[in-house]
Amino acid sequence: MTGPAPLMEVDDLAKHFPLPRRGLGARGAVRAVDGVSFRVAPGEVLGLVGESGSGKSTVGRLALRLLEPTRGAVRFEGRDITAQSLRQLRPLRRSMQMVFQDPYASLNPRRSVGQAIGEVLRLHRIGDRADRHDRAAALMTKVGLSPADLGRMPREFSGGQRQRIAIARALAVEPRFLVADEPVSALDVSIQAGILALLRGLQAELNLAMLFISHDLSVVEVMADRVMVLYLGRVMEVGPTRTIFTQPRHPYTAGLLAAAPRLDRGDGGEARVVLRDEIPSPANPPSGCVFRTRCPFVLPACATEVPQPRALAPGHQMACIRDDLRF
Ligand SMILES: Nc1ncnc2c1ncn2[C@@H]1O[C@H](COP(=O)(O)OP(=O)(O)OP(=O)(O)O)[C@@H](O)[C@H]1O
Ligand code: SF4
Ligand SMILES: [Mg+2]
Fold first, then answer.
1. Which tens digits make up the pLDDT trace of 244-278?
2. Residue 272 within a domain
3. Disulfide: which of 41, 44, 91, 170 matches 97 by Cβ 3.0-4.6 Å?
């Protein structure tokens, strides 16, 4: 492998949620994530896109071991975190933080902002009381809020301000890796750009690696260095952001882009891929290529062959058996 040593390496990760048993038949499972591999370099932002239910949040939670995988490995700085005891994980938890879609749900409504930030510092045994207060004040400034507001309660802030507080709390312990799961999706469009600029600025300043999850392609385009496209728990395509947006090679990527038209991209003319029908159930995914029931370019072989990711250019991979498609 070339380039810097990865901060995070994920190999053949899977999460199957068992379904309740029905009658005497075998117990089925929702294959939320089914064989996902990727790398994130220090200071790199990997965008994760896909329709609702494609397994994005599950990948994010597995990467931080907030969920136990069904199979596969997650290595952080070379150590397999899926094989570590909870005690061994403790110091690593500090290096890996998460920002969620709904900042209100992740902030305790009965604790002041200062208490919320102080608590995470105390949990990781960082500083004494005075240090923790100073740190919390500095963080407030860093995220564009006033240290004078540390005593206020979450409900006294707007949605955008609350997401700034959630970001401050996640960064308080100086993580090297952040999972941001739809961090602006719950916010008014008019305030999304400010939060994204803040996140991007802090990410660069702190050389923070990030798994940035969003169903909104325009948001991923401004945030990510590379983009990974997920469908029914599998990686369809991964590559540099510019390549994915201008020269997608997987029909699903082309379909996602066509469904989110932009003025400067045109409508793709004849190559426009219309995503018809709904995503099949991950409890009963199609054989062969999981995208085949919606793919306009499907061939008989797509029902039997599971396309393996293959390299098209350095850093650009996709999983489709066809070589002739251009969008
Ligand atoms: N705890 C769980 N138990 C059972 N099924 C689950 C659980 N969590 C997720 N799933 C299922 O796994 C699949 C993937 O879910 P996930 O939340 O990872 O998708 P997502 O891409 O984040 O979707 P969204 O864009 O709606 O957030 C879905 O079919 C979902 O219903
Ligand atoms: S493998 Fe077949 S069904 Fe899957 S994306 Fe390629 S052409 Fe479509
Ligand atoms: Mg999700």
1. 999 999 999 999 999 886 645 555 444 578 888 88
2. yes
3. 170
Q: Please tell me the total count of domains within the chain.
A: 1
Angstrom distance (rounded) from CA 108 to CA 99: 14
Residue 99, helix vs strand vs coil: strand
Whether residue 305 is contained in a domain is answered as yes
Indicate whether 83 belongs to any domain: no
The total number of residues shown for the chain amounts to 327
Bridge partners of 109?
A: none
Distance (Å) from CA 229 to ligand 1 centroid: 16
**What tokens appear for 77 in the block?**
């700085």
Tell me which residue range forms the domain holding 268. 239-327
φ/ψ (deg, to 5) at 212: -105, 110
Q: Is residue 78 part of a domain?
A: no
C-beta of 251 in contact with ligand 2 (< 6 A): yes
- Are 318 and 244 contacting, i.e. CB atoms less than 8 angstroms apart? no
> Which tens digit of pLDDT belongs to each residue from 23-42?
777 789 999 999 999 999 99
- Look at the block and give the residue holding tokens 């990948």: 59
Question: 15 alpha carbon to ligand 3 midpoint, in Å?
Answer: 14
